[in-house]
Amino acid sequence: MTLRDIAKALNLSTSTVSKALRDSYEIGEDTKKRVITYAEQVGYQPNTLAKSLKEGKSRTIGVVICAIDNSFVSQMLNGIDRVCNERGYSIMIMQSKESHEQEIKCTEVLYGRSIDGLLISPACETPNVDHLIRFQQWGLPIVLFDRYSDELDVPKVSINNLDAAYQATDHLIKNGYTRIAVLHSNTSLNINIQRLEGYKRALHNHQIEVREQYIQPCNLQSTSQLEESIYHAMEKLSALSLPPTAIITLSDQISTSSIPILQEMGYRIPQDIALVGFTNTNLASSLNPPLSTIYQPAIGIGETAANRLIDIIEGIDEEEKKTVYLDAKLYERASSKRI
Asked: Please, are residues 63 and 94 in contact by the beta-carbon 8 Å criterion?
């Protein structure tokens, strides 16, 4: 069923039918109602390809994330999808699996599909953003969300990572813990750098020495590699003459993997070691013990990033290069209770 078919059935011009379906002010309400009712009855669907060719836009946004089987990422995608639906855009989602090489392939595929813009949360393994700089030079609008690099001069949407890590460290110190280790995602992206800076700043402000041996990297490339790296990090920490009495896990993946590993290794939480994690899992309060968490506004990150990108695409963004920081919140639970 085409516009022409509807026009012929209703004895109207194709132009009138088209304007009626677009709710144009040029068409009377009775005619609009007549056209819309008939279109619904016959199951008319607009030809989006033809419309895209006419407008010179695909009305499609590419999204690259690390992995879709992550509760925090899924929540961000919900925010992106909600905004894109409301504003008439579809999304194409691809996963980097924390691989720089895979991320490059994802962006090349999406660019080849004539996307109008790109939303990307770079892989932890990404050493540089040269591939994104190239697409930017070719005129592709880009917004970085959650993770980002200062090498790329585009809008960025994230949380205040320094403040969030400061909150977690300050909370543990005020609860009596001074030997605090961190398990981090071992990436040069700002998200990791700023969280480590927040951790160190809290220690400095409380006149507590920063012990570099307490700062342990983890490998997020795959679940097996992540679990192996957490085991290895905990073995190194437990072998120290002054092992830590508390741990902060600086990513969602590390946080959700750490509790069963610590318990399997014989640690009692918080009796042997306290724990605070960056995670948005809905199960945090149901874990044994309930996990103290830094909760990030994941849906808000996704919504803000999608709105920024669409504003740029449609030429209505007034602050194209501005970085937006959303606030994270500390939820105190039994895993980090006072000594």
From this structure: yes
The third-level CATH classification (topology) of the domain covering 161-296+329-336 is: Rossmann fold (3.40.50)
Residues pairing with 247 in the sheet: 181, 275
Measured CA to CA, the distance from residue 221 to residue 322 in angstroms comes to 30
Asked if 117 and 309 touch (Cβ cutoff 8 Å), the reply is yes
User: How far, in Å, CA of 278 to CA of 313, rounded?
Assistant: 33
Tracing tokens 């996963």 back to the chain, one arrives at 95
**DSSP codes, 201-256:** HHHHHTT----GGGEEE---SSHHHHHHHHHHHHHHHHTSSS--SEEEE-SHHHHH
First to last CA, the chain: 71
C-beta separation of 99 from 222 below 8 A:
no
Question: What CATH homologous superfamily does 57-159+298-326 map to?
Answer: Response regulator (3.40.50.2300)
CA–CA separation, 104 and 13 (whole Å): 48
Can you state the angle between helices 161-174 and 190-205, rounded to 10 degrees? 30
Could you report the average pLDDT of every consecutive run of 10 residues in the chain (339 residues)?
A: 88 90 87 92 71 69 92 95 94 95 96 95 90 94 94 94 97 97 92 96 98 95 91 96 97 90 93 94 81 95 96 81 90 92
C-beta of residue 230 within 8 angstroms of C-beta of residue 209 = no
Q: Do domains 57-159+298-326 and 161-296+329-336 have the same CATH topology?
A: yes
SS3 of residue 95 by DSSP: strand
Distance (Å, whole) CA 39 – CA 246: 64
- Domain spans, the chain: 3-46, 57-159+298-326, 161-296+329-336
